[in-house]
Amino acid sequence: MDKKILITGATGAMGVLMCKTLVENQYNVVGTTRSLTGKRASIAKELQSAGVQLVEMDITDDSSVNQAVAEAIRFLGGLDVVINNAGIGTVGIQEFFTVEEMHQVFDVNVYGVQRVMRATLPQLRNQGQGTVIHISSGIGRLTFPFYGTYCASKYALEAIAESYRAELAGFGIESCLIEPGAMPTEFLDGMLQLQPQDAARSQAYGDMIHVPQAAMAGLQQALAANPNQHPQKVADAIVDLLAMPHGKKPFRTVVDYTFLKEPVEAYNDLLHEITRQLYIANGMEGMLSLNQ
After folding, report:
1. Which H helix or E strand runs over 184?
2. Which residues on adjacent β-strands are paired with residue 31?
3. Following DSSP, what letter does each residue of 195-258 receive, concatenated?
4. Structure letter (DSSP) for residue 260
5. Of the residues 104, 130, 167, 243, which has the fewest C-beta atoms closer than 10 A?
6. How far apart are CA 57 and CA 68, in angstroms?
7. Counting Cβ atoms within 10 Å, is residue 161 exposed (0-12), middle (13-18) or buried (19+)?
8. How far does CA 49 lie from the centroid of its chain?
9. How far apart are CA 87 and CA 105, in angstroms?
């Protein structure tokens, strides 16, 4: 296979598996990372040894994204697939988040995706074909307490992906969302965990201030006891999607082996039909032509 793929967040736990799995399946892959030195240096070398080319990208900086995308296209000699994988998680009582802290999350999970799209779409549009895969979340469809800011960022990503799906179809660019459930990776350990910055807020919530951390510990224990819930399944889902004919891929794919899969899929099916009917009513059904 000669598909040329760009993956953001390549040195994160999920990104590493995606990169390695795609290379093993004969794809040409360039991954992005904030830095090739520092704490990610050993992971970067591991990926490079596996055949992944890496470029430095700060997804929160326009010029860095533009430069990294241009470099990736030069390395690959073109671009066929963009995988928006970079992300940051949060856990904590919603009131404790300042606007600045929420902005930090949206700057990566939402604005970062938009930066990458603006940098890559001219290439995909000019060649008249391409595939964009957004890594969303099961809790980008359903909201759980203590994950509100993260959920909100993934809800926003889902909305942006819906819009791109319709607006890019006429250029031959298909869009896909992958919605994983929680996975036992370092992503959970690296989630932004917030405590109140003043005593009044802390006292108002009483013992509830300890619940987010306890819930996170319980989640990690449950994941450790469920071998089927493994991040490799997300990488495998991407390989499966890319093997499908262009324009025939499902718009949403849920990857989960806990309790989320069936209800989220049922919700997605209902929304898919509502969306289709609304597009038909407004004479825009053709804008959904590239996804099932």
Report:
1. none
2. 7, 54
3. --SSHHHHHHHGGGGGHHHHHHHHHHHHHHT-TT--THHHHHHHHHHHHSPTT-S-SEEEE-SS
4. S
5. 243
6. 6
7. buried
8. 25
9. 8
Spot the catalytic one: 27, 147, 150, 155: 150
Dist. CA 254–CA 271, nearest whole Å:
14
Write down how long the chain is.
Answer: 292
Distances (CA, A) of 238 to 7, 21, 164, 213, 228: 11, 9, 19, 31, 17
Query: Quick one: tokens of 198?
Result: 């003043």
| Cα–chain center distance at 104 | 16
Q: Which amino acid is at 143?
A: T
CB atoms within 10 A of CB 25: 16
Rounded to whole angstroms, how far apart are CA atoms 116 and 133? 12
Task: Please give the pLDDT value at position 210.
Answer: 87
Give residue for tokens 């990169």: 19
pTM: 0.94
Q: Give the pair of three-digit tokens for residue 185.
A: 């990776």
Q: Which helix or strand (DSSP H or E) is residue 66 part of?
A: helix 62-76
Active-site residue flag, 267: no
Position 122, amino acid: P
**Distance between CA atoms of residues 249 and 246, nearest Å:** 7
* Domains of the chain and any CATH numbers: 4-288 (3.40.50.720)
Question: Where do we find the tokens 């910055």?
Answer: 197
Render each residue's pLDDT in the chain as its tens digit; 292 residues. Answer: 579 999 999 999 899 999 999 999 999 999 999 999 888 899 999 999 999 999 999 999 999 999 999 999 999 999 999 999 999 998 899 999 999 999 999 999 999 999 999 999 999 999 999 999 999 999 999 998 999 999 999 999 999 999 999 999 999 999 999 999 988 766 555 565 666 677 788 889 999 988 988 888 888 888 888 888 899 999 999 999 999 999 999 999 999 999 889 999 999 999 999 999 999 999 999 999 888 6
